[in-house]
Structure formats: C-alpha cells, structure tokens
Amino acid sequence: MNEVRIGVVGVGAMGADHIRTLTTSVPAARVTQVFDTVRTGVGIPPADSAEALIEDPEVDAVVIASPDFTHADLAVACVKAGKPVLCEKPLAVTAEDARRVVDAEVAAGRRFVQIGFMRRYDPGFVALRAAIADGELGEVRLVHAVHRNASSTTSTDDVSLVTGSMVHELDTVPWLLGDELTAIRVESPVTQGFRDPQLATLWTRRGVMASVEVFVNAGYGYDVRCEVVGTRGSGSLEPASTLSTRVAGLHGRRVRDDFVAHFADAYRIELGSWVQSVGQGTPGGPSAWDGYAATVAARAGVASLASGRTESVDPGPRPELYR
Question: Which of 10, 81, 106, 175 could join 65 in a cystine, given CB atoms 3.0 to 4.6 angstroms apart?
Fold first, then answer.
C-alpha cells in the first residue's frame, strides 16, 4: 500500500491519541499536518487553519477530532475537497447538520466519510455481534447496555449527554442487531440541574427492546457493559482487565478511568482499517448515514427527556449510496 499522508484537526486528548496510534501502529500512515485553535507542540507542522489543512495537496486524508459542533462543517469541507475523512463521533450536534454531510456525499456520488464509532471494531463487541448473527443466542428479545464515566468535561448538560455520550449506544444497539431504531424514551431520577444519569428505553423495527444507562459522572471509573438476551441464551461482554489484586484487605479488579485505554485495541483496529480503505480507495466502516441515523435518534432522545413521552425515531429513506 502507498503511504497515506494524514492531517489531524484537533489535537486534544482524542486527537493526540490518534496521532500516537497512527505513528506507532499503522505503518502505512504518516501524519503530516495538524491544526488546533489552542494546542501546539505535538512535533508535527501546524497548518494555518482547518480549511488550509483540508485543501493542502500534501494531505491525502483527514482525521477530525475537534469539538463536536465543528464536525459537520469540516466533514462537508472534506467531501467537497475529495478527501477521505475519519470524523470522531458525533457526526454533528444536530440532525439537520448531520443531514448536510449525507447530502454532500450523495451529491458527490461516492462515500468519503467514516464515523468514529470505534465500538464496531472492539473485539468483544464484534464477537457479540457474531453470536447474534449466527443465531447462537436464538431470537433476540432484550439488550441491556451500561455506559459510565468517572467524570466528563464534554457531556455537561442534558442535551450533550445524549448527543455526545449516549450516541455511542444509539449506534451500537442497531449495529449489533442488524436492525433499526423506531422509538426512544429517556428518563432520569434527577429532577433539578444536570440530569445525570439518564436511562433510555429503545425499540427496534423487529420488536427488540433495549435499556441504556448513561452516567457520565459515576465517580469510580470508566465502565462499559452490554448483555444481549435471546430465546436460547444470553451473551455479555466480560471485564477487559484480567488482573486481580489482594491489597489492604481488599480483593478485586481495577476499574480504568480512561476510555482511550479501555478501547485501545478498538481504536488501533479502527485506524488501521480506515487507512487501508483510504489506500485502496474502498471506503468502509460506519458511514455518514450511520452518523445521521444516530443523531436523529439522539434528537428524539432529547425531546423525550423534555416531554416525558416516548418519541419516534425516523431518519427517512436510506439513500442508494448507503445500501
């Protein structure tokens, strides 16, 4: 494969880790430019602006790891420049902005955008999906998902908890099941201020129900779990850590507080797969439509939390480009 020259927009925690992974674990990739409005000093030539980085002929492909509200405009710019792009989740903060990215790709007549739903590359989630697809669990009836952070500096209000954190589950559940979401209800035991945690109930087109707990200030660490219950049995993800300690009268396993470390394998596989697809000219992975569908579900979830009602999820007909 020819070398793929990559520009990275946003070099905070996520962007810096992507640079490290691309540099150390993806031989075909070379990070040639970065842009960030605040941070410098990553040892890579900085561009004058995100737009200049995207337009630079020395950049073959782009990673977007800047704040959520910038994603849609930057993704559209990449599509218009004909540059493949890995855009961190969410594709956009609003469904309307996410749809702009879809429309730009449809107008271009080809896919350029992959969304950073890295759980699709996590070995545990991949194995769970295979067990469902193979019929090992029988007909799936229920999914139970837990998503907890020790603390969060990005999901800091009712809306961003759904659009920035729960959006992972809003993609993962339909991807696991090979199904589509049709309705969502979001509630919280907290009635004043920031309503964290939140509990969502999801319904799919084939009648599966899913419970999704998102608690971004759980305090004790980063904890992601998932159990799928079928008519022949259940499948669940086991804790990633294999080390058990006995210290000061306590016996247990350490709970990580770093989501990047928790999903290190997933990020490495995701980036490697993306770079390979760029080099081969065959886009794969979560599409702009997948990002849009998750954002539509998030919009309905935000509306449900405010209304107290179950809200429908309807992204509309899928364009031929994504079939």
Answer: 10
